[in-house]
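Researcher: I'm preparing a figure for a lab meeting and need a structural model of a single chain. I don't have an experimental structure, so a prediction will have to do for now. The sequence is pasted below. Please return the structure as tokens so I can convert it later.
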Amino acid sequence: MINKRFKKLYSRLIGIIFVLFVISHFLPVPYQVMAPGIAAELSPMIEVENGYENQGEFLLTAVSSRRAVAWDYFYISFFAPEDRELTAISEQLPENMEMNEYIELMAELMEESKLQAQAVAFRQAGYEVEVSGEGAEVVEVMEEGSAYNNLQQDDLITAVDGKEVEMAADAVNIIKNREIGDVVEITVIRDEKELAFDLETLELEGNEGNPSIGVLIRSRGLDYNIPGEVNFDTNNIIGPSAGSVFSMEIYNQLIPEDITGGQRIAGTGTISLDGEIGRIDGVKYKIMAAKEAGVDLFIVPAENYETASQFAGDLELLRAETINDIIEHLENGLQS
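Model: Understood. Here is the structure written out token by token.
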């Protein structure tokens, strides 16, 4: 009789555990799982009209992000695996902004990144390029940022530290390349008046390690004239962090010699109109994705180099501050 009861209780316990296990794989929690994403060849995604074909490849790298379920929360919290982590959704989204609005803003920054990459690549290849914009429009001001009670929604940022801002990515790149605690001068147009604010760069929750003044911005009045056609097929990839490798892929199709030397070269980093390469988030996971893809060299922004070197292992890193750093390194490799 005792054995029968024990077997019955044991069966029920196993059943409950099984049901909880199944539920844990479907029950969402207010976190996202960050993990290595894709390392994808750019030649199928980018086509320069009448461009050259090459043997080597440039690859973009991305971070995978998905909604966490209860199982993810328990597993990652308990085992702390190196290849994934949890981030609170509330830390990812600015206050009063819905996820679809944030995704739309990231998609706009991706389009700007493509434009800047084209401009930089064509200029490096010796072409005349004209790019202009009215500046960066403030979409949202966050309470925890230094811009709060200073900048306002619809302000038009026209300069940062005296450096002209024609599009949102210009302002983002300048501020991201400052140190946390630095003071930056933000020049804006508000009600047809020019105003200047000295704002401290802060490390905001959910954006650790990155200097910020606590605003979301988008470009206003963007216009460009590039002497060639470039077609992109980047599907659902959003954000500005592939700008540097976009530039290199376009440049490599514009010049007769394959600057890769037949190598597979992955990388990351934003690009500004003057060719500066800016820091990005998630470099650890991008390195992991590149190693999985078996690349020969990884291009990393100077500001991310220290972190990248901790996870690179045998993967060769190229520390780059500007697009010229990449071109000079690869040209030297071709000559040696």
